[in-house]
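UDP-N-acetylmuramoylalanine--D-glutamate ligase: C-alpha cells wanted.
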Amino acid sequence: MKKKVLVIGAARSGLAVARLLHKHGYQVILTDMGTVKEKEELLKGGIAVFDQGHPECLLHTDYAFVVKNPGIKYTVPIVRYFVEHEIAIYTEIEIAYRYANGFRYGAITGTNGKTTITTMLYEMLKKKGQAIVAGNIGYPLSELALRYEDEVKDVALELSNFQLLGIEQFAPTVSVVCNLAPDHLDYMPSVESYYASKMRIYENCKEDAWFLRNLDDPIVMEYAKNIPCKVIDFSLTRKDCPLHRANGKVYFEDVVLFEEKSLALKGDYNLSNAMIAACMAYRLGVSCEDIQTVIAQFQPVEHRMEYIGEKRGVKFYNDSKATNTHAVEAALHCFDKNIILLAGGHDKGISFQELSAYDKRIKLCIAFGETKDRFVNVFSHVETRETMQAALTTAIEKASEGDVILLSPACSSYDQFPNYEVRGKLFKEMVQAYLDEEDI
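Answer:
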C-alpha cells in the first residue's frame, strides 16, 4: 500500500514537490487556502487536491510526513496540528535532495547578499558546465530534481532560514552563512531562533565538505559552532585566514582567485560577496581563469543597488531587495551625502534605529506604507506618504542637482505589493517614465 504524504501550499514549489513525490510512489494529497489552477491536471495525474481551505478530514490521516511551503508559518492551525502530533514536516529542499543524487550544492544563506553570491556562483559554475540555480532564485529545487534527477549537476542554491527549518538530511558540498542581522521577526519567535536556524545549513555535512565562516561578523562567530566539516575562515580585514585580501588581490591560501580592481561591483560588501562566490566555485572545480572572467563581467542583480538613470543632475537607484536595515546600511555606504531615501513597507518587527547613524548622509527620508510613522524618529528630516508612488513623486519634486533618490525600503513589500520584485519593477517604470518626459 502506498504511503501518504500531505503537501501544504500549492505555489510553484508545492506543485513540483507533489509531482516528484508522486513519481516516486507516494499517495500525494495537496492542499491550499486559495484556488489551485492546476487542479484538474493534478487530479488526472493521480494527485488529490483540496483547495480553497484545509478541510478537517486532512487531519485524521496517517502520513509518512508533511511537506510545507516555507512561507507558511508553523503557527498556522493545520501546520501547528502536525507539529503538536510530532509528524515530520519538511520543505521541498529536503525532498529534492533525497532524489537528485547527482547534484552537488554550493548553498548560500545569511541575511543580505545571498542573491548576489548565488547568481555570481551560478555564472562561475556555468563556465564549467552542467550548472543550475535554484532555491529562492531560479527554480524550486524539486522542479529541477524532477527534470534532472538522474544527471550530474552543480547547483548554486540560495536558501532562506524558512527552507532550512525543514531539512533533515540535506548536506551541501560547500556552504556559507554570509552575514547575520535581525530579520523575519514576524515569522520567528525570537532573533536568537532566527540566527540559529541559519546554522542548520552545515549540520548534516561530511568531513570533506566546506563551510565558509565570516570572521568579520560577530553574530556568525557566536552562532557558528560544532561545525562537522572543514571550516574555511574568511575576512576583509585579516590576513591570518585561508580566504583573505592582500596587496589588491583575493587569495585562497596561496592561490590568487582574482584581483580586486577587476571586480565590476563597488563596495566592500560586494567584495565580500565575490570572495565567497569565488571560493565556493573553486571548491566545486571551477578554474581560476573562469572565476576571474565572471568577476570582471558581473553586474548588479536586479533590484539590488540597481542604477536606473539620471536627470537634471539627480541619480535614481532601485534597491527594492533591501528588506531589512542591514541591507539598507550597505546601500547608504555607497553615498556620502545628499540621499533622498524612500523607505517603508510591511512591518517585520525589526528596529530601524540603527539607521540613525547615517542621518548626516540623509537629506530627506520619505517614508511610506505600513511602517511610515516608525521612521519619524530615525532621521532628522522625514516626511510620510501613504504609498511608494506618492513618495517618489515627492522625492522628484524636492530633489536638486547632486542628489540621489534611493529606494531602499528596509521592509518587506507585503503591505502593498506581492513581493519586492513587483515593488522594484513599478519603481523603475515610474522613474523611467519621468526620465523619458521631455523638459518644457
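Residues 4-90 form a domain with the Rossmann fold fold (CATH 3.40.50.720). Residues 199 and 224 are 6 Å apart (CA to CA).

Cheers.
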